Amino acid sequence: MKQLALLLLAVLVLKGYAEEAKPASALNNNSTQISQKRTTLARLEALDVLMKRNQFPQAFELADRLVEEFEGDPDFDFKYGMAAIETQHYDQALFAFERLVIGFPDQPRYRLELARTHFYLRNLIRAEIEFHKVLKQKPPEPVVQNVEKFLEQIADLQRSVQPRFMFALDMAGGYDSNINSATDENSLQLEINDVPFEVPLDDDSRETASSYWSTLINFGYLTPLSKTSSYDLRAIYAKRANSEIEIFDLDTAMAEAGISFFTGPIRWRTAGRYQFVQLNGEDFLDSSTAMLQSQWRLRSGFSYGLAMNYGLTSYADNADGDLTQQQVTLSFASAPKKHSWVASILFGADVAEEDVNEFSGKTYQGFSYQKTTLWGARGSRYWMLNIVSSEYDAISSTQPELRKDLAFTFGFGWRYAFSSSFSVHNDYGLIYTDSTLDANTFKRGKAEFGLTYSF
């Protein structure tokens, strides 16, 4: 027994020597870590107290300091999101509830708060989609009633008119395999007075590939005239500069003014538009257009659209080149949801003002289809197909036969929004036009990457 007591005493003495032998820095580090843990726990407890007391501004300020350390923790994300939404920091709330919905897709409360955040950001389509997902999860009756109130407000907002101001700046760069939509043939077979001959083409008249950069500035303003009517103003300026050759650089400016009003569930808009285009800094064409548009949205969310345009286009270097343009478009759109689509059919005619230019007139009809898939809460992907068939009104003196074109356009891309103001996009396009005339048969491919800032 005495030996056991001595053994225990020796162990205690050795442990004491070991503690004394530890470096002072190690002891200080342990103390610091313990102190930091206590401080963190105290902050989390303080956050919990602030949330229970509905002191949301203080709770958000505290949570915002802790987000880098605790984001991804469900309890913290929920408190952070609620504090953010109650203090109108909607972008931060969106990130928090996105993480929660990704981790817990079957939890109605998290999806409900995500839908509310989209609603307050006025992302009405996204909000409507998320609210319908909440209803599909069969939540308690009070939640159902709350969701239905939000859906009613969304419907009212979509029909009501509120003052709006919009500005967007898009900067993009890309590559275009055929910037002038020209043939890849080295020469063309023409015919004048039944005499055929061959015309060699210079580089500017043949398919030209080039990288490019573009800038687009988009301004919009809407103000109500009454509860269900408004007038709006739009202005767009776009510039595209090619690195390979300058003669195909484009400057485009457009101004538009319109009046909108509702008759029951149908929204009508009539507007006037003026547009001019410069090619390599010199006037190329200008056009004036009158428009009538309507959209009828059903209770299911499905909508019908009708648009009619009538205008005049004039070419700066061709006094006899004026064209009267008419176009009618019918569109059909699915209800807003994760996978949405829009289909359109169009009919149109370009009528030459002068008989000497009759060969420039044409009639055409086409079909387009676009499908968009929401990619998480901030991104989207799309693809589209457009087919247009054209037949010209007369044969030119240099053409062997009447011109008929069949144009196919296929595009796809994606967009991701980092916040309500800043997004990035990546787009690809393929065009193939088959014409009875070799000079107008061409193929074209384009890839573009850009950044958009808007408010």
Class computed from helices, strands and strand pairing: alpha+beta
Mean model confidence by pLDDT: 87
Spatial ordering of strands, largest sheet: 1-4-5-6-7-8-9-10-11-12-13-14-15-16
- What is the makeup of the main sheet? 14 strands, antiparallel, barrel
Q: Considering the protein shown, what is the CATH homologous superfamily of the largest domain? A: monomeric porin ompg
Quantity of strands, as a count: 16
Indicate the proportion of strand residues: over 45%
- Note the gap between the termini: 84 Å
Total helical segments: 8
What are the main properties of this structure?
16 strands, Serine Threonine Protein Phosphatase 5, Tetratricopeptide repeat, 47% strand, 455 residues, 14-stranded antiparallel beta barrel, single chain, alpha+beta, Porin, two-stranded antiparallel sheet, disordered N terminus, elongated
Record the SSE blueprint.
Layout: H1 2-21, H2 24-52, H3 56-70, H4 74-86, H5 90-103, H6 108-120, H7 124-136, H8 141-159, E1 164-176, E2 187-192, E3 195-200, E4 210-226, E5 229-242, E6 250-263, E7 266-279, E8 282-297, E9 303-315, E10 318-333, E11 339-352, E12 362-375, E13 379-392, E14 404-417, E15 422-435, E16 442-454
Antiparallel strand pairs: 1-4, 1-16, 2-3, 4-5, 5-6, 6-7, 7-8, 8-9, 9-10, 10-11, 11-12, 12-13, 13-14, 14-15, 15-16
Helix pairs in contact: 2-3, 3-4, 4-5, 5-6, 6-7, 7-8
